[in-house]
Amino acid sequence: MQELFAELSAPSRAARVLVDGLNDMVFDYAIPADMRGVTRGSRVEVPLRARSTTGTVLALVEPESEWAERLRPLRRLVSEEPVVSPALMDLAEWAARYYAVPVEQMIRCIVPEPVRQERHEEKTRKVIVLQDWPDDETLNKINRRAPRQAAILRYLHAGADKRETLADLGGSPALAPCRALEKAGYVRIEEEQVHRDPAGAEQFAPTAPLKLNEEQAAALEKIIGTFDSAGTRPLLLQGVTGSGKTEVYLQAAQHALNQGKGVLILVPEISLTPQTMARFKGRFAEVDTHVAILHSAMSDGERFDEWHAIHRGKARIAIGPRSAVFAPVQNLGLIIVDEEHDSSYKQENSPRYHGRDLAVLRAHLEHATIVLGSATPSLESLHNVQQGKYSMLRMDKRADGQRLPLTRVLDMRSEPKDKRNLGILSERLRMAIDERLQKGEQVILLLNRRGFARALQCPECGYTANCEHCALPMTFHATENRLVCHICGYRQMVPPRCPECHTANITLEGYGTQKVEAVLRRCFPEARLQRVDADVTTRKNALRDILADFRAHRTDILLGTQMISKGLDFPGVTLVGVLNADLGLNIPDPRAAERTFQLLTQVAGRAGRGDLDGEVIIQTYNPQAGAIQFARRHDTDGFAETELELRQQMNFPPFCHMAVITARSEQEAVAALAMDTLHKRLLGVLPPQVQISDPLPAPLAKAYGQFRYQCTLKAPGARILADTCSREIAAMNCGEGVTLTLDIDAYSFM
Predict the structure, then answer these.
(1) CA dihedral defined by 87, 92, 96, 97, rounded to 10 degrees?
(2) Residue 700 falls within a domain, yes or no?
(3) Taking a C-beta distance cutoff of 8 angstroms, is the pair 210, 366 a contact?
(4) What percentage of the chain reaches a pLDDT higher than 70?
């Protein structure tokens, strides 16, 4: 009888819980019989050693018989509803297997730290509400005894709502008089939730839907048709810059909201979030919904409030960069991936997922419609159209009827070096800038390299000032008067003499945005100039403020890196100059030509978006490069056809999946040995259809004080690479000081 009782009392289920913390701690806990509602994705409180903590339920499992009675029980459900939906749990499990990472890492992406940490609870404020108004005699007695209380009563009585926040009544010093009034029955003290809005007090003017042209209307009709028929085939919207893709997005989102569905909008850069937010908040300003923003530059409190607004269904529209693909949008019906070609959607640290690809999968799991939009679609997406996996929508004309800007390519090899311009500005570009400024028009200049000079080099012995921790020349930053490594951030003083030969003739080679800024200020002293790069946008909302000034025409020239090349709409810009179009062409990357073409086409599209025609001037030392010539003609189809043919011949993506394995160590010999050992193991287990390169030093041979060795793999499917490589990496006994990483569908080969 006792044995039977023990069998019946043993827990029949257990919860596998990812415990919150820095490490991926996963433990099984018994589910008490009286605890209902525990399921995948639930947030629970669990015992851990001598304390309590929280975690996320990964799965419900049957406990092994020998451990069943020894499992510690869950203490409580943190929330009645699962924090992670079944669809997001499925997404996490799929992504974990595809990218060869523990599922715990994906769960941490879905439930961000501010949500996991209890210290970021909802913010509240005290509100004082007038309950009763004393007669004059009583009020006079209160005034004689406690004048502060009387003043508070009069202030509340004078207000239209008969209620004020404690802060408006004087803050903490006013709390004691208010409590005395509450005890006497004259006021009531309430706790009111305060939503920490990343937009702050910014106001958004309501906007009305615009009349669509024929191409826009056809694209919208197709999107709505797919939505209404519950179709899940992705839609690729290829529209030239200025074709009005955003208006199509807005009206498609309105249709989804009208059907009671949620909307998710992904943008490639945090810098584009404010502009997209402004357009959506303006359009839906008078709609009973909340537009939420999610990105890493927000405060923890703002992320906590916005995430919960989405999870509770208060916010039906969520906007953000790649991490927002995990936003807990309720009843998701429409996903929009803007600038779907952008490499920023690929995360470069673990878990190395691609936001666009996970968005496509999430749309499939949640039976939602997904629209991938770009003027320069990725070759992967175009290939999927050719294979019948995606449907193509096209908008080949600008929405306002304006022509695409005239693009000129200038061969800098034939340009005489002007001492004043240091070979940075061609005479043609300098004259064009001067002409536009005289007319009161605006100019955008692109140089995808920050800093003042590329390197510090000795002309006598050839010495270059390299980073102590990385195998790269350091960049001179004039504002700091320091040499800075753009990989690890290491800084050092500028040596007055060459450390090798001791000559004083050490010189600065090349140029970055800081040096261009100095040249521009000399050439155009009256112009209002703003520089946009990683060095000036560290302050919160700095980029938003700079772009706002440019939009309001308080700035004449906007000089920046690639962050100004995409998604921005400035009607006053009539000239775009690309100072060095070759920077991205000569890197060891199979996508180098594609990225150069996309960057040039995108930045060219910033010109002529208003009533005036635009002009683009591209400076290059390689004018015959295919990417540059196709960009000059705005010929996306021609570039795609040529590049896809070349990719197929070379067996590069999208005709295969590529992975990069990297071994890192502070000792070069150790990294080389680990990579060589793993390479030999893989040769013995990889199927014949997988190609693997020899182990070699990485193009960036040293970074963050560690030497790096790599090998590259190609296969018809990513799962082959993920399963085989992850198994062999896990079986390797490299010892301490060696790190092996696997990047599936790699975008960086450095």
Answers:
(1) -10
(2) yes
(3) no
(4) 90
